[in-house]
Specification:
By secondary structure, this protein is mainly alpha-helical. The protein is 80% helix and 0% strand.
Length: 83
């Protein structure tokens, strides 16, 4: 009997899934989960799009203005303090 993959396990496996490094059996079980779980499928699509956009930006080595970088860092520090 195949073990069920939970939504939590699904999200934990997404990077390996997208990189094609999952064991065939696990990939098949994950595909089954995704076909039956619209929220996880939507999360996969969002994750994949975010990863692709991040990769493109990294490859372009876009420089942001120093002032914007400082504002972003300040914002992120404040968010971390709140959590």
């Amino acid at each position: 009997m195949k073990a069920f993959i939970s939504c939590k396990q699904c999200t934990d496996l997404l990077m390996d899934y997208l990189e094609g490094t999952l064991d065939t059996g696990i990939k098949q079980r994950l595909d089954e989960h995704l076909s039956a779980c619209p929220p996880c499928l939507n999360f996969l699509r969002t994750y994949k799009t975010s990863s692709e956009l991040t990769r493109r930006l990294r490859d372009q080595q876009v420089q942001i203005p120093r002032a914007m970088e400082n504002r972003l860092k300040s914002f992120l520090r404040e968010q971390v303090k709140k959590s």
